[in-house]
């Protein structure tokens, strides 16, 4: 059981480049989330998806776009990377209805130079 | 709007001492509260949630709706408890899951 899988684990981008972070879960969860983790600021929600076909902005959505491709996959895209987007990104998924715990991916360490 | 506040960014205690990590929340409905733990460079994992009222690794947390708090406690800290701890809040099913700023706990020998 893989749980939540994120790719890539590490990435270095130049300012202005674009990239997509991939996330997939195999637990049949309806809700999926993207967070960024920065020292002293905790986990901040970028976007989330309560179900297939829906997405909503979180606390810090500017500079990002998301796609809920299907129930399993939720991708995060940086169209034009900026140094301020240097961070560790985590994807998570959570079941709906029984309020089960959120399961997290291993994280993507992104550096924008 | 929902908000989670952890007032202490850093907390240091000695092995065997009691530890309390504070968490306050703001939410207009009936929240689901969680504590997550992140050991060095690992993914976050659930420590406990208020609805199950269980004790994990000796940690407990009580939801105080009057004070809107969900503090995490352990009577005797161990060195292996050193980690980053996050308090989190979820509202209705499928809604956003909001985290606090985190508290880095260090247990000294």
Structural class by secondary-structure content of chain A: mainly beta
State the low-pLDDT regions of chain A, or none.
none
Identify the overall geometry of chain B: globular
- The average pLDDT score of chain B comes to 91
Distance N to C terminus of chain A: 36 Å
Q: What's the SSE pattern of chain A?
A: EEEEEEEEEEE
The fraction of residues in strands of chain A falls at: over 45%
The helix-strand sequence of chain B is: EEEEEEEEEEE
Report low-confidence residues of chain B grouped into runs of 5 or more: none
- Total DSSP E strands of chain B: 11
What Rg of chain B, in angstroms, do the CA atoms define? 13 Å
| Number of beta-strand segments of chain A | 11
Structural class of chain B: mainly beta
Largest beta-sheet details of chain B: 6 strands, mixed
Please tell me how large the radius of gyration of chain A is. 13 Å
Residue share in helix of chain A: under 10%
Number of H- or I-type helical stretches of chain B: 0
Helix and strand topology:
The complex is a heterodimer of chains A (113) and B (109).
Chain A: E1 4-7, E2 10-13, E3 19-25, E4 31-38, E5 42-49, E6 56-57, E7 64-68, E8 74-78, E9 87-94, E10 102-104, E11 108-112
Chain B: E1 3-5, E2 10-14, E3 19-21, E4 24-26, E5 32-38, E6 45-49, E7 60-61, E8 72-74, E9 83-90, E10 97-99, E11 103-108
Parallel strand pairs in B: 2-11
Antiparallel strand pairs in B: 1-4, 3-8, 5-6, 5-9, 7-8, 9-10, 9-11
What does this entry look like structurally?
The complex is a heterodimer of chains A (113) and B (109). Chain A has 113 residues and is mostly beta strands. Chain A contains no helices and 11 strands. In chain A, strands 2, 4, 5, 6, 9, 10 and 11 form a 7-stranded mixed beta sheet that branches. Chain A is globular and about 40 Å long. The N and C termini of chain A lie far apart (36 Å). The model of chain B has no long low-confidence stretch (mean pLDDT 91). In chain B, strands 2, 5, 6, 9, 10 and 11 form a 6-stranded mixed beta sheet that branches. In chain B, a hairpin with a 6-residue loop joins β9 and β10. Chain B is mainly beta and 109 residues long. At the A-B interface, β4, β5 and β9 of A face β5, β6, β9 and β10 of B.
